[in-house]
TrEMBL record:
Family matches, as InterPro entries: Beta-barrel_TonB_sf (IPR036942), CarboxyPept-like_regulatory (IPR008969), Plug_dom_sf (IPR037066)
Chain coiled-coil ranges: none
Chief localization: membrane
Lineage: Bacteria, Pseudomonadati, Bacteroidota, Cytophagia, Cytophagales
UniProt keyword annotation of Membrane present: yes
Localization annotation: Cell outer membrane
Protein name: Outer membrane receptor proteins, mostly Fe transport
Keywords: Cell outer membrane, Membrane, Receptor, Signal
């Protein structure tokens, strides 16, 4: 009832704004910089104009490559940029609101064909990756894409689940499964720095969580890569999120107030003073789940209330002679108490355990300082110093079946600090050749302590008790050669060395792209990729002779994977394309048990912890292969669509020599997304609808042995039948409605994102209920409405 009341109030608010009579014509300023794609040098004199305006709104860039377009009408605008000797670019359907100026960074690629005049053609694909060395399995995305798709919750990871080859592990978290790989194989990079898990309630060694710490309101154009990635990326075997934070507005102070699923959010940005264009960007967010549950909304956590807060910032400091400095930081902390003693035994949720009280604490933070120095117009270097901290702690008490009284079971305290020094050199030799080289060293400081209570001895026995330091060194070299206007090759090497156990690996990378004509492009990519095991895995203790403690996993090598990808892209029109890719991945040196078993670390990473298995060896194998299709229309003329289909198989081999399905082998995933935007009485009021349908194969699970579970009063799994039972197929429909109103110098936006609109019951997992002594089905998220309000001014 309270949900219905709140929704009614929202609708009444929309009705009030929709029936307002005043409808003046609002305009906004569009600013930006035009740069060379490779050298990042400014392009003075470039032509910048708004398409379809009468009279023409246009200008030319100044000596610093900067431009300003004033009095651009609110609504949407397409911006065309051209410069002699460069491929022209068109940015399509950029949202223009009265509450916030538009600040753009536009990069043009030098043409190999000598032209006396500029020939303007359709171009400028917002889906093109920022990294020009990424040949296959890569696409770009921006803040608007993260916020547009239904069901994405303003979360880059959930947004990426709409792309071909990608799926979610489950509704409870935002872990992403890329081509059947474990989510632990994903690398998160921010402002050029590898960062720890950027999610609230995230466990060390994992890459996902229920709520993202990353704030979509601060994201700039970023890349997402799903295979055969360039040599600049290391210590990852599945995929890469290469994220950038936008700069604050260096000319006007602007502010943001937002309230929704991710909490109450306050943001501000503006100039820092001086003539060099320095700016700041700050954002703080605090969870509002306690309030939302009071008015009837459920977070899927039963009676438990999640608490979290996070902070993001970027300060940009350009100088006249000393280059450009940038200071950035993100951080967050979270806690939740999942009390089985307060959970209704007749119901289930996505997180709680009936037989346990779980007290979870987590936090992470990253701060970095970047200095970019131009040595000449064709060469620049970037020095980055950064530090990050991650912590996860858990206290778990078991509950008596007789009186539900708690008794100690498990304690966990993991802390990891990383200090990084990094240098990157970029050199554009000419229009055909450019080089990138870099190296970085991570100094790791760890404090790992967890223990399991031994009732017979009335004491805790350490699973890990390690503190100390180690290091990871990485370097890379890349060369891009454009043989002609249509054929280009990328060649690279990546090297990494782990100080702890002397593990080292040299990894070749290669990419080839051939534009047959203006419509058809063929591509190929290969890469050898390796990755550290999660740091806690190395320090798991086992008991040796004379009760001696042994760290049997300390010598583990990197896990490794060969990636082969072939792609084809057909451009039907400037805004509609079809893309297909086939791939094969050979995964080897995966940790498995020394004794024959079905265990493999390939199946870990989509939960709130890692398996505690000792005596591991790098003898495991895996293989992933599949076909991916994407049919997409960019947002033009008020609408977009995205249809993706992924057919794949993902298998692994444990130390028992048996090939099995991996935990993430759903075999097929189909997504369909469509969105339409309408003006209501003029450009000052817009209404948008977005819909998403997902159909996916069920993942495989290990069946529970009911008889043994009853005897031991806990779930006991039939490990000899690991991942042999397929869950029912997954289906979900999400619908999002957005209403935006422009007023003088401010913009209101209301949205309602209804996830799982049909309330379809998707199986999450099977658990053992010790009270009823039965196997119980837990289901994924039911219908879940998420209202949001945003004010920019």
């Amino acid at each position: 009832m309270r949900q219905k009341t709140l929704l009614l109030l929202i609708l009444l608010g929309l009705s009030h704004w929709a029936t307002a009579q005043d409808n003046p014509s609002y305009t906004q300023t569009v600013r930006g910089t035009v740069l060379d794609l490779v050298s990042q040098s400014p392009l003075p004199g470039a032509s910048v104009r708004i398409l379809g305006t009468d009279p023409l709104i246009g200008t030319a860039t100044d000596l610093e490559g900067r431009f300003t377009l004033v009095a651009v009408p609110a609504g949407r605008a397409s911006i065309q940029v051209s410069f002699l000797g460069y491929e022209p670019s068109t940015l399509r359907e950029i949202p223009i609101t009265s509450g916030k100026e538009v600040v753009l960074t536009i990069q043009l690629e030098e043409s190999l064909e000598q032209m006396e005049t500029v020939v303007v053609q359709a171009g400028g694909d917002s889906r093109q990756a920022q990294n020009e060395m990424a040949t296959v399995s890569a696409r770009g995305f921006d803040m608007e894409a993260t916020q547009r798709f239904a069901g994405s919750r303003n979360d880059p990871a959930r947004m990426a689940q709409n792309f071909a080859g990608v799926s979610g592990a489950n509704d409870s978290r935002n872990d992403i499964v890329i081509r059947g790989n474990s989510p632990t194989g994903v690398l998160w990079r921010l402002e050029g720095v590898d960062i720890p898990n950027p999610n609230h309630f995230g466990a060390m060694g994992t890459t996902g969580g229920p709520v993202s710490i990353l704030n979509s309101n601060l994201l700039d154009k970023s890349d997402f890569i799903t295979g055969a990635f360039p040599a600049a990326y290391g210590n990852a075997t599945a995929g890469v999120f290469d994220l950038n934070l936008r700069k604050g507005n260096a000319y006007r102070r602007e502010h943001l107030v937002q309230m929704g699923f991710n909490g109450l959010e306050l943001g501000t940005e503006g100039p820092l003073g001086g003539a060099n264009g320095a700016s700041y960007l700050l954002n703080y967010r605090y969870s509002t789940f306690a309030l939302m549950q009071e008015i009837g909304f459920s977070a899927g956590t039963g009676a438990a209330v999640p608490y979290y807060q996070d902070f993001s910032m970027k300060v940009d400091l350009p100088t006249r002679k000393m280059g450009r400095f940038s200071l950035f930081a993100i951080g967050g902390k979270s806690n939740i108490d999942l009390l089985g003693s307060e959970t209704d035994s007749s119901t289930t949720d996505l997180y709680s355990e009936l037989s346990q009280n779980i007290y979870n604490r987590a936090k992470m933070g990253v701060v970095g300082l970047t200095h970019r120095q131009y040595y000449d117009t064709q060469t620049y270097g970037v020095v980055t110093l950064s530090a990050d901290h991650s912590f996860s702690g858990n206290r778990v008490d078991s509950l008596s079946l007789e009186n539900r009284e708690p008794s100690p079971l498990f304690r966990n305290h993991f802390g990891l600090n990383k200090f990084r020094a990094q240098y990157e050199l970029y050199r554009k030799v000419d229009s055909r050749n450019n080089f990138r080289a870099g190296m970085n060293y991570d100094h790791l400081q760890f404090n790992l302590r967890d223990s399991l209570y031994q009732a017979a001895e009335d004491r805790f026995r350490d699973l890990r008790n390690a503190s100390g330091s180690s290091g990871l060194f990485q370097s890379h070299l890349q060369w891009q050669h454009r043989l002609d206007q249509r054929l280009s090759a990328n060649i690279g090497l990546h090297y990494q060395y782990f100080v702890l156990n002397d593990a080292r690996q040299l990894e070749p990378r290669f990419g080839l792209s051939f534009e047959q004509n203006d419509r058809n492009t063929f591509s190929f990519g290969y890469g050898l990729h390796s990755q550290l095991q999660p740091i806690p895995t190395y320090f798991l203790e086992s008991e040796g002779p004379n009760e001696q403690s042994l760290q049997t996993n300390k010598g583990l090598d990197f896990s490794k994977s060969h990636h082969l990808v072939a792609g084809f892209r057909h451009q039907f029109s400037p805004d509609v394309h079809l893309k297909s890719e086939i791939y094969y991945q050979h995964v080897y040196d995966v940790p498995v048990e020394m004794a024959p078993s079905s265990f493999s670390l390939l199946n870990a990473g989509a939960d709130f912890g890692l398996p505690n298995v000792d005596s591991l060896t790098n003898r495991g194998r895996g293989r992933n292969y599949g076909l991916e299709l994407t049919l997409e229309k960019q947002f033009t003329e008020g609408s977009y669509f995205l249809a993706t289909a992924s057919l794949f198989d993902s298998q692994y081999r444990g130390s028992d020599g048996v090939w099995r399905n991996t935990a993430f082998n759903s075999r097929y995933v189909v997504n369909g997304l469509f969105g339409k935007e309408w003006e209501i009485g003029g450009p000052n009021r817009t209404f948008a609808l977005d819909i998403k349908l997902t159909y996916a194969g069920g993942q495989y699970r290990t069946p529970i042995d009911l008889e043994r579970s009853i005897l031991e009063n806990q779930a006991v799994y039939q490990e000899e039948r690991a991942f042999s039972v397929k869950n029912p197929d997954y289906f979900r429909t999400d619908l999002k409605a957005v209403y935006r109103v422009n007023k003088k110098n401010l913009t209101h936006e209301w949205s309602l994102d209804i996830q799982n609109l049909t309330n379809h019951q998707n199986l999450f997992r099977q658990t053992y209920n010790p009270i009823s002594q039965s196997i119980v089905n837990s289901y994924q998220l039911g219908i879940f409405p998420i209202p949001q309000y945003r004010l920019t001014f």
